[in-house]
Amino acid sequence: MNQAGAPFPGAIATARKVRSGETTAREICEAALARIATFEGAIHAFNTVTGELALVTADRIDAAVAAGQDPGPLAGVPIALKDNLCTRGVPTTAGSRILAGWIPPYDATVVRAVAAAGAVIVGKTNLDEFAMGSSTENSAFGPTHNPWDLDRVPGGSSGGSAAAVAAGFVPLALGSDTGGSVRQPASLCGVVGVKPTYGLVSRYGLIAFASSLDQVGPFAATVADAAALLDVVAGHDPADSTSLNVGSEPLAERLDEGVAGLRVGVISDFLADASPSCAAAVRRAAEVLGAAGAAVEEVAIPSLMLGLSAYYLVAPAEASSNLARYDGVRYGLRVDAPDVAGMNSRSRAAGFGPEVKRRIMLGTYVLSAGYYDAYYGQAQRVRTLVARGFAEAYRRFDVLIGPTSPTVAFPIGARTQDPLAMYLSDLFTIPTNLAGHPAVSVPFSLSEGLPVGVQVLAPSLGEGPMFRAAAVIERGADPGARGPVEPRLAEVGR
Amino acid sequence: MTASMPGAAGWETVVGLEVHCELSTATKLFCACPNAFGAEPNTNVCPVCLGLPGSLPVLNARAVELALRIGAALGSRVEPSIFHRKNYFYPDMPKDYQISQYDEPINVGGHVELADGSLIGIVRAHIEEDTGKTTHVGGGGRIHDADYSLVDYNRAGVPLVEIVSAPDIRSGEQARSYVSELRAILVATGASDGRMEEGSLRVDANISVRPAGAVEYGTRCEVKNLNSLRSLARAVDYESARQIAVIEAGGKIVQETRHWNEEEGRTSSLRSKEEAFDYRYFAEPDLVPLAPTPAEVAAVAAGLGPLPAARRHRLGDLVALVGGAAPVDQLATVVGLGLDDLVAAAIGHGADPRLALARAANEAANRPEEARDLDPAAFAELVKLEAAGELSATQSKAVLAAMLEGGGEPAQIAARLGFEALGDAELEAAIDAAIAAHPAEWARYRAGDAKVAQFLLGEVMRATRGRANGRAVAASLEARRT
Fold first, then answer.
1. Cβ contacts of residue A370 below 8 Å, gap of 6+?
2. Which of A89, B19, B306, B412 shows the greatest Cβ crowding within 10 Å of its Cβ?
């Protein structure tokens, strides 16, 4: 059965049908492309749609099935990739004018993984420039619209991927999460979004924002589909020195084992700072878990609230260095000048948007001689405090829950003039990145017609219990609280 | 510049050197591209060493092993270390930061023993990546006036170890012998080919002066563009003299980076301390800490062969046993080029130690690679032929050159070159002729002027085109004197 608003069933069901010959990858792919053709003009989820390439891939999958070969666990499943994942031969912009037209000569490790699993890449999704933002309004190529309400943001920075799943363009998408960039848009778009344990998924080929925080993560309409995609992209990669070399059993297999006996902590500090509807969703999700046999208790972890300020020192510091390479010398935008230094600064001035410039300047400042200890050094100490706060909590709890976002999707333009208000969107997601832990946002309820997500957090490599709790919350969620949805084009005259 | 005397009276020169050594790994420090000199520009490159968006570094285990060998050879302590990013914009640096080690380097402390026995302290020897190479076209080859610049990234990401000495060096000559010794150590460990002309070894000098006997250091200047040992020695002496002259004229030394101009033989200001970069070091988040285990460190140290200082002592002792004290510079040359085993083996085959050492240090040294492949028995045979007077020194050198060229037995080569020893009658006839042609000199010789012997010997050599045995000529002249 197709999910509401989607021309195909979920990822697992689609792959099963393609592998069994019940349907073809081409049929699925054409349906996805047709839906994109209908709604993309209103949503702008993609920077590039790779329709022809997708059909070629789909035909290859079908040929493999016809030849009796197994094209893999995601056979014929359309997938969208955040446009900061390098794709060989396909433009990759990171949402920035400075990389407009750049075509990578190589694939990111996760891109190879999804292709090897039989998924069909249909395009590259819009994002805040270099993943810096919480609304996808910082893209050099224009904002993405929330399929639930086209006047609202989809969240960010992986807003294009979240919107693509929520609009029923694709059953799966990949994003990247540095401070909440998968979970927050997932919450605002009513889909599942996962930030895996740091090092579980390779970063090779992910255009870096803040290397010690970045992690690639899946989007899907359901917890099971998200787990299936994470199973495909997780694993050791010798090309990423920070990649973990741990054997892990597939998450998808043990999803339905329930939460009986699971110790669940509800982070009280988060509830206090969330909007009433977001806090209420968490309390009701806690009841759902309790009813399913979990031992639920509130817990205060005050150090988590220090995370935001530490994050806005650590992430810009790393970004200021990671983005230095965009200097006009080797690739990307070049604006000529009489000398090299002039060419560097003119290219960067023309190529970067205001938020990226703000963070480069901030990061450069906090790493400067004389300020390093007071800012960057202090932020690293706070980062340790956050990790310690979590560690103490995880002595008593297996997983923690809280709101993903303080609010539901906000109107386009509402926070663009106030960076600090925008930064607060990630208040509840950032501590997880600072600690390197996993977390997932699960659609749970609606508030004034807009989706509200609940976040499940776990210690490093705690994806197993985290996904089991997420599956239980999903089963107890309000009907209609999750995507895909039918974008209401007529209503807004688009 | 009038004060040209190095170490002018009343002043002490203080030098610390930073030596960048390219490691002779097969691949680059953080990717699998070949680490090779001389390839077509931008052919040994990949997403990682070009710093393409999304690429990540992976540390080369062999580079770490070579860095540990260097540390072991320098007597350094191996410490748990991490990598840092050194941030600055430069077109030949693909990421616009260099991955280097900063305040937690892998090798800490140690020393180098120079050929004359003096010790120079080592502060640290850390791992870092090399940059690409920029060629400025037009405008005299300097970046500011160039029409355009070309960048070759083949060298970008080549592994380097930077060896920082303590400020223990006191002259240009000592700086030269320190680098020469360091080079021998690096070659001996297999860490580097030590070729300064190819940039495998690059030296920056921190130079200051202070009144003799002072404890405080003077303000230092860093001198760059030292492309040979000769440049280094000249630059240290020049810069030291310049600083002394400035101070003696009532001026002050400003901390700055200076450029050595080899043609003009002087340094000039490149940038002042105020213009220095703020490198904004921070721990490289794309790499994990590097902490070799004690067992790994021990295994590397155990695999290290004897080092130049030890080898000089060994060969020196061997020569001294039979032939008296060996010249220090010949020992250094032979060990530096890895020819000590050849000499030792030749001595073992019965060759005259001093002569074997001299031929290795002076003639074989011109072609060290071929010399290392010489058959020690054949080399010993050559030295024996010369010592026995069957080959003159000139002939012996020619035979050795032929052996280095294509191998072979010295006796056969000598025969092929027509180097049969002169018969006694022929030799005596040649001496008769020389005496007859130079009666005045002969008279002076007979009157006791020993110096004239060299002249007469030269005449005999000339007449016999080098075939005469010098010692036999000398003996005959001596016999005829009375």
1. none
2. B19
pLDDT tens-digit series, residues A199-241: 999 999 999 999 999 999 999 999 999 999 999 999 999 999 9
Provide the whole-model pTM: 0.88
Q: How far is A148 from A162, CA to CA, in rounded Å?
A: 11
Provide the residue range defining the domain that includes A94.
Answer: 11-246+254-268+395-492
Please report which confidence band the pLDDT of residue B49 belongs to, taking 50, 70 and 90 as the band edges: very high
- Which band of pLDDT confidence, cut at 50, 70 and 90, is reported for residue A1? very low
DSSP string, A397-437: -SEEEEESSSSSPPBTTSSTT-HHHHHGGGTTTHHHHHHT-
Pull the structure tokens for residue A293: 């046999």
State the Cα angle at B53 between B51 and B54, rounded to 5°.
105
A375 DSSP assignment:
I
pLDDT at B111 over 90: yes
Per-residue pLDDT reduced to its tens digit, A368-402: 989 999 999 999 999 999 999 999 999 999 999 99
CA distance A100 to B279: 29
Residue ranges in A86-147 assigned as alpha helix (H)? 109-116
**For residues A144-168, average pLDDT:** 98
Answer yes or no: is pLDDT of B250 > 60: yes
Cα dihedral value A130, A132, A134, A136, nearest 10: -30
CB spacing of B91 vs A340 below 8 angstroms: yes
Say if residue A280 is exposed, middle or buried (CB neighbours under 10 Å; 0-12, 13-18, 19+).
Answer: middle
- Among partner residues B47, B280, B286, which is closest to A105 by beta-carbon distance? B47
- Count of C-beta atoms within a 10 Å radius of residue B448: 8
User: CATH number of the domain that A98 lies in?
Assistant: 3.90.1300.10
Is B287 in CB contact (< 8 Å) with chain A? yes
The interface residues of chain A toward chain B in range 264-303, judged by CB-CB distance below 8 A, are none
Tell me: pLDDT of A493 over 50.
no
Do residue A369 and residue B85 have CB atoms under 8 angstroms apart?
no
Looking at the structure of chain A, the number of domains it has is 1
What's the token pair of residue B455?
Answer: 């002249």
